[in-house]
Structures are given as structure tokens and as C-alpha cells.
Write a structure and sequence with these properties.
Helix content is 22%, strand content 38%. It is built from 2 helices and 5 strands. The chain has a 5-stranded mixed β-barrel with strand order 1-2-3-5-4. The two termini are 34 Å apart. Residues 1-21 form the signal peptide.
Length: 109
């Protein structure tokens, strides 16, 4: 029993060590977003959306969110509202982690 506890403790510490940035260089957020534009680089190797949180009355400036999966980018529609999770490393643009329709209880997460 002690070995299981020790192995579990080592696993948790390793997991936290791999995902925690001590210098505060990693940020993650979840919010509603309204997509106002979809764009790609000229060589189509990078795709992104321009979106803002429609429920944040203080900030309506759109943010650039990189979409790494082409299939996901193809399904996102302009002028639609979604619930999303996105992350950012210091000095880099936001990256889409998850997106779904608001209230879609049967959607995969």
C-alpha cells in the first residue's frame, strides 16, 4: 500500500512539474467568444480567428486566436457565438484549446 501511495505522489509531482510554468508565462482562459473574422496565412500553414467576448462590456477589442486543427477552423462560422478555452504562452498569440456551441450538452469535450 505504501508503494502505491509513493508512486501516486511521484506521478502527481511529475505531472505538476510538466504543466506548471514558474515564471507566469502560461495563461489559460475560458469564455464566450463571438467570431468576427477567419483568416489564414498566404501559404495556408497557419489559420486563426478574430474574436471577442460579447459579454465583457469593458473590452470589445478582438483577439487573434490560432486554430491548429484545419477541420475545426473549417467548421467555425463568422458572426456566431461559441464557448471556448484558449491558452497563451508569454509573447505568443492565443491558441484555441476547445470550442463548443453554448448550451450543447451532448458535445464532445
Amino acid at each position: 500500500m505504501k508503494k502505491v501511495g509513493l508512486l501516486l505522489t511521484i506521478f502527481v509531482l511529475a505531472l505538476v512539474g510538466c504543466t506548471h510554468h514558474r515564471d507566469g508565462s502560461y495563461t489559460s482562459a475560458s469564455s464566450y467568444i463571438k467570431v468576427i473574422d477567419k483568416e489564414t496565412s498566404s501559404d495556408y500553414k497557419e489559420a486563426w480567428i478574430m474574436a471577442y467576448n460579447p459579454y465583457n462590456s469593458e473590452e470589445k477589442d478582438p483577439m487573434k486566436i490560432i486554430v491548429r486543427e484545419p477541420m475545426v477552423w473549417n467548421l467555425i462560422e463568422k458572426d456566431k457565438e461559441y464557448f471556448s478555452t484558449y491558452s497563451q504562452e508569454k509573447g505568443k498569440p492565443w491558441v484555441l484549446e476547445q470550442i463548443s456551441y453554448p448550451g450543447d450538452e451532448k458535445g464532445l469535450r
